[in-house]
Design brief:
single chain, 286 residues, Ribosomal Protein S8, Chain: A, domain 1, 13 helices, elongated
């Protein structure tokens, strides 16, 4: 810009900071942000938001909170994006208390929380083992006119699964199903697709499946194929869901599964296995 004698302004700086943020270059984003003062360019809310988001993606929750404070000092009003970025930064940094402080501060500042705000706060609680707070946040969503999405349910179910609160996790999975979420998991009476699920969500869906079979809500007149995937999309290439589903069926006394020789990413509950389990198999643990 300088070589062509084009003077950088707040728009060009903000775009550059945002580009670094999208590319995961938090240090470069902060360098550009700090250069604005030296060039006599006053950062606006867009500049701050891009820098806060960059810090969040880079795991720099302290720097994100520092930027939020600087906004106040300079008279720049934080908006929804500012708060969401800071809450997400705290969530990624395992700072659930600070995430909740920011979430609660939104009301005091006249900023209406949205689905992103709730999901980041719920996830922060889930990652820190605060399942009761996660549940409380989840229940507060509808009162605020915010409809939970699959990310909301994932975080809550993972929090509940971590403390073996299986009945509650199943209740929320049923709510999610009524809402039309996890459609692949309920493809048909003969197929359950779990390969896009986390281990906790997969276990909860399997519990619901067995409960439905027990109650007669789901037919057992045909074999059920459980699609788990082979771990091709996981970061370590391990078939986590495949292992977890098989482990679940064994530990909880479910129907005996057979591996599908033509597809290692599936296992099958045969009609014979289902009938034997329904006649004499153990009940789901309470």
């Amino acid at each position: 810009m300088d070589r062509r004698r084009v003077i950088p302004n707040v728009i060009s700086f903000s775009k550059a900071v945002s580009a670094c943020e999208k590319d995961g270059q938090w240090e470069k984003a902060l360098e550009l942000f700090e250069a604005m003062d030296r060039r006599g360019v006053t950062p606006d809310v867009i500049s701050f938001n891009a820098a806060i988001s960059a810090c969040g993606k880079g795991g720099q929750w302290e720097k994100a909170l520092e930027l939020l404070k600087v906004m106040d000092m300079r008279g720049v009003m934080p908006d929804l994006i500012s708060f969401n970025g800071a809450i997400s930064a705290c969530e990624k940094g395992g700072q659930w208390e600070k995430a909740l402080e920011l979430f609660e501060a939104m009301d005091r500042r006249g900023v209406t929380s949205n689905i992103i705000s709730f999901n980041a706060a719920i996830s922060a609680c889930e990652k820190s083992g605060q399942w009761e707070k996660a549940l409380k946040l989840f229940e507060a969503m509808e009162g605020r006119g915010v409809t939970p999405n699959v990310i909301s349910f994932n975080a809550l179910i993972e929090a509940l699964d971590a403390v073996s609160n299986d009945d509650t996790a199943m209740a929320y999975m049923k709510r999610a199903r009524i809402q039309g979420l996890y459609p692949k998991a309920w493809v048909s009476d003969t197929k359950v697709d779990l390969h896009d699920c986390s281990a906790a969500v997969a276990r909860t869906i399997m519990r619901c499946l067995l409960q439905d079979l027990r109650s007669g809500e789901r037919s057992s007149n045909g074999p059920i194929t459980i699609v788990t995937g082979r771990g091709n999309n996981s970061t370590d290439r391990k078939a986590v869901i495949s292992t977890e589903v098989r482990k679940f069926l064994v530990e909880f006394g479910g129907p005996v599964y057979t591996d599908a020789p033509e597809n290692q990413g599936c296992c099958v509950l045969s009609v014979e296995s289902l009938r034997a389990w329904l006649l004499g198999g153990s009940l789901l643990p309470k």
